[in-house]
Specification:
The protein has 425 residues and is mainly alpha-helical. Helices cover 81% and strands 0% of the residues. The chain has 15 helices and no strands. Helix 7 packs parallel to helix 9 (226-247). It is elongated and about 85 Å long. The N and C termini lie far apart (89 Å).
Amino acid sequence: MRKILLLITLSLLFLFLELGALAQETELPDPGLTPDSPFYFLERISEGIGNFFTFGDLKKAERYAKLAAERVAEAKAVVDKGRPEVAKVALERYEDQLAKALTRAERAKAKGKDIERVTEIVAEATSKHLTVLEGVLEKVPEVAKKAITRALEKSKNGHITALKVLAGENPKRAVEINIESAKGRLEKAKQEAVKGNKENVEKILEDYEDFQNTLEEIREKGKTLAALVSEERIKDIEDLDEIEDEVEDISAETEKKVKEAKERAIGRQKVSLRDVADEDPEKATEINLRAAEARLKRAKAKAEEGKIDEVEEAVKEFENQYKFGEEISAIAQGLGKDITTVEQLVGKATSIHLEILAEVYEKVPVQAKEAIERTMNVSAKGHQKAVEALKEKDALDEVSEKIPVPEKLPERVKEKIRKPETPKP
């Protein structure tokens, strides 16, 4: 009898300590007792008691989410101590408790409860768990990798599930967390690319694609989120540029996959920009012009490195992005909206675009200059079209009526820009 009382007392003590650790929510708590300890069973007993005295699906969901975080902390702790073989115990419990957290949250929602808080906790926590578990994976021998890889997949799937559920309660917060998670994937991919880890880069890009597909699904719950997503994708595409630069010496296959990921990102950006144009064509035009300018900056950087093929690729990306502005204008006109501000933005941007193109033109060899001239012609034609429309409305404002031709260009090229031909399809 005395032994039983002692056991209950110790269990309640562990429960008290555990609750203090769980208050950290999305941060990893102190691991406390770990699976390699002979007293680990006491922690399991204390958690069982805590579960018994936690009432309601919502409270239980929060509790299981926080306990799952402790399992990750335990797995990391035993690996750091050189005992990776016992991490499996913590990871199996992690999978179980994460699943229970999501199940309880869904039950609470079915009963009409507000589950925003708990799904936000799970979404933020699982994003952090991915990073921690990846670090653990790098430290363990091959025989211990299977359990961690499985936990990583469960964590990713749990993250996506939580985001989708959260989107039903607070789509803006779901989008914000998703954006941060995708950003974390690209940062990790950059690190792995620098190390030359081909397989890791490709796996992380797969995760990134899954997060992007989820983002497309949840942002549709509110078109007002499209501008936020479109702006962030400019940064994503620049990150993918960096990854592409790193992997080009590792594997042609990996480089191809990065290029494909970037193409999909550009395509998704246009999809979200169409939604922005429905609500706010001026905002859509601003974002589109910034995206186009980012492509020109890449062309300039590659020209300075002497990588002509990549200059031409970036310039072509600029052309496509710039021409997409015509679709934004068409959407606005179709909705009966005044596009004066849109035309003014296009007219003002020409000066910046032509200046950057002139710098690129100076740095590329003769065989590449024709492509740059063609792109300058596209920009000049866009300026000319905008000016003609603005003059009819007497709304030139600060837009130069003349095409702002950079002085550094040869006279022959200047003349072509002043009288741009209609670009061939």
